[in-house]
Amino acid sequence: MKSTLISAIFLSSIAFFGCAQAKSGIDLKTSEVEAIIKNYLLENPEILRDAFIELDKKQDRLALAEISDALYNDQRDSFIGQKNAKVTIVEFFDYNCGFCKKSAGWVEKIIETYPKDVKVIFKELPILDSRTKTSKIAAKAAIAANKQGKFAEIHFALMNERSISEDRIYKIAEEEGLNIIKLKQDMNDPKVELYLADTLALATRIPSLSGTPFFIIGDDLIPGADEERLDAALQSVLDKI
């Protein structure tokens, strides 16, 4: 896609340059025009950088429009906040992701600050499972905990754990008052595995989503735990309501 963009910029520049030549009466060979344009782009690479940034934004906007229903209306998602809140934040995360743990405090703060205006939808994306061996178990436990009305408790407790083991997951669930037998039954429901697969497939349709955490706030797509950027994106949406 990016090589296509470079070609488009190059060809457009040649066409524009050709029109300018015709008007000015200057006669240059195509090879000379190409050399001028090439040198200009090499001396001003920010032009290509800005074009790539705009291309990425355009691709993301198109992707979000196509998957909007799956992002915001999947009844299987866990969420915190009013169902019909004015602002909805979507977060893709992994319980073993260090930056997810870092941003969890921001998420909790926002929920407490705007209990009626902001809803956070949590998209379980255990992409670190092949290394940690517990990311998927933690995700399944949180999904199952939601059936007992304890998602928030389990979510933030797991995020506050520096190292997650399977035993610790169940210990936390017990400490939060969950029925462990029911929890394990719900975790083993084939529908949970399907939901995780669907969420992964959804994530792959967002071009700029390459890791966790990943936030969607209005039209802003924000990777990582940049609280300043998250605050600015949220405030921008709040100012419009």
Compact overview of the structure:
The chain is of the alpha+beta class. Helices cover 62% and strands 10% of the residues. The protein has two domains: 64 residues, no CATH class; 167 residues, 3-Layer(aba) Sandwich (Glutaredoxin), CATH 3.40.30.10.
The major sheet is characterized as:
5 strands, mixed
The number of helical elements comes to: 11
From N to C, what is the helix and strand string? Answer: HHHEEHEHHHHHHEEH
| C-alpha geometry | elongated
Strand order of the largest sheet: 1-3-2-4-5
Helix percentage: 55-70%
The CATH topology of the largest domain is Glutaredoxin
Total separate domains: 2
* CATH H-tier superfamily of the largest domain: Glutaredoxin
Radius of gyration: 24 Å
Number of strands: 5
Beta-strand level of the residues, as a percent range? 5-15%
Q: Give the CA-CA distance, first to last residue.
A: 36 Å
- Using the coordinates above, name the CATH class of the largest domain: Alpha Beta
Using the 3D structure, state the CATH architecture of the largest domain. 3-Layer(aba) Sandwich
* Derived structural class: alpha+beta
Query: Unreliable runs, pLDDT <50, ≥5 residues?
Result: 4-26
Nearest-integer average pLDDT: 86
